[in-house]
Amino acid sequence: MPLSYPVQDFDSPFGHFNSELSDSDLRLSAYEILIGACRTSGTRPLTYIPQSDKTISQYKVSTADAPSPPPSLHRSLTSSAASKVKRSLGMRSGSTKRRLGGGESVGNKGRATVGELVRVQLRVTEQTDSRIRRAMLRIAAGQLGRRVELMVLPLELLQQLKSSDFPNQQEYEAWKRRNLKLLEAGLLLHPHLPLNKADAAPQRLRQIIRGALDKPIDSGKNSESMQVLRSVVMSLACRSFDGSVSETCHWADGFPLNLRLYQLLLDACFDVNDESIVIEELDEVLELIRKTWGILGLNQMWHNLCFLWVLFYHYAATGQVEDDLLFAANNLLMEVEKDAKASKDPEYSKILSSTLSSILSWAEKRLPCLP
């Protein structure tokens, strides 16, 4: 069942996203972030790291800022064990039949992997996936040992992919525009830190992006335009609260950009053919998604709040046909309550209040009044 409820009934509680990027653009950017986050240094950037039962059992109570290593994108989907996350949220487990592109179901595809499932769930074509992975290998080869949190991914992608990597010039230019718009969203429209009005870098980046949208930028490694873009982008991405230069790059962890990207990743937990159903491979998919926390500036507390909203949204937007989603949201709400008592983050408190208000407002409009 697709998401079919009127959009106006579901204003995002995460805040107004002030960008021309569409959901399709953001979904693809979120997938690029996921692939980048799952890579490691060395020649094999996506390696298998077994997940422990302890990691899964701590899903509801962990407050660590950094996630545990995930299963590989190449891990085969052969396990028949019931989802521990589903069980912890009070959800039923059952066989859900999904279909990969070309009409072949995941359940019948013996060699299907977690990465393949996530790709299909996020509506990314095999051709696009292959191109992204090729770019990530080039980035890894050029920056051995450098963690993805220490680079600005759209900038690296702009430099690594050329027109020859795309079916046609039009698709290549559209891809470059999307990455430039993502830089604009993460560094200018929704930055991690407020922009300094005395700093010339924001205005310079605006000029570069505006010019590149009118006349395609030369993204060659040694091109002057690319060197200028890199210099300006890094000066904005490496700012810190105390004015020093930060080692970590901040380009996708400003609110609400980070929450919007994360929400789209969490959508991969729902059957692409029936979005009222949570997939059976929930544990494995969530373990991969958690790897993006470092780039998006999130932690278990933020995950709980985002997942609460996504569960409720899918319940309401698919016509309230799957009570499991409502029960799961209610159970997760108890964890969010614990998080709220422990949190001193004003941004978290604001978005929590907005989320609860959105849920309450919907309930008052849609549910029958009690006598």
UniProtKB/TrEMBL annotation:
Task: Name the source's superkingdom.
Answer: Eukaryota
Instruction: List every stretch annotated Disordered.
Output: 60-108
**What are the Basic residues biased-composition ranges?**
84-100
Q: Which InterPro entries match?
A: unc-13_homologue (IPR008528)
Q: What is this protein called?
A: Uncharacterized protein
Q: Which organism is it from?
A: Salix viminalis
